Amino acid sequence: MVTLVVHHSVRDFDAWKPVFDEHEQVRRSHGEVEHRIYRDIQDRNRVIVHNDFPSEEAARGFLEDPSLKEAMSRAGVEGEPGVALIERAERRVYDEALAT
Predict the structure, then answer these.
(1) Is residue 6 within 8 Å of 91, Cβ to Cβ?
(2) Which partner from 8, 11, 37, 88 sits 20 to 30 angstroms from 81, CA to CA?
(3) CA-based angle 41:43:46, to the nearest 5?
């Protein structure tokens, strides 16, 4: 499993989210199996998204999809996003009730 991490600022999170949701089928067509969205506590328009893909090739395929830049522009992404590919090295759960 490879996680594509994307972080960027948006003009308005509430305007960004529906465009992100509309783009789900594109992510899924590249094999995305899960995503998580995080927001900065101090700046609610600073967004971090973790997109899980089955392989590095699948994640890179999504990054190269021609519709991605257009969707990000339409969603109000400001500036160039930061992007990284990571893989989990360890996971330790201390409270199973909070593990979801």
Answers:
(1) no
(2) 88
(3) 100
Per-residue tokens: 32: 């995305």
Q: What is the pLDDT of residues 2-31, one digit of tens each?
A: 999 999 999 999 999 999 999 999 999 999
Q: Which CATH architecture has domain 2-89?
A: 2-Layer Sandwich (3.30)
CB 56 within 8 A of CB 1: no
Please state, in angstroms and rounded to a whole number, the distance separating the CA atoms of residues 99 and 69: 33
pTM: 0.90
Output 87-95 pairs: Cβ under 8 A, ≥24 positions apart: 87/1, 87/2, 87/3, 88/1, 88/3
Q: What are the pLDDT digits (tens) for 26-52? A: 999 999 999 999 999 999 999 999 999
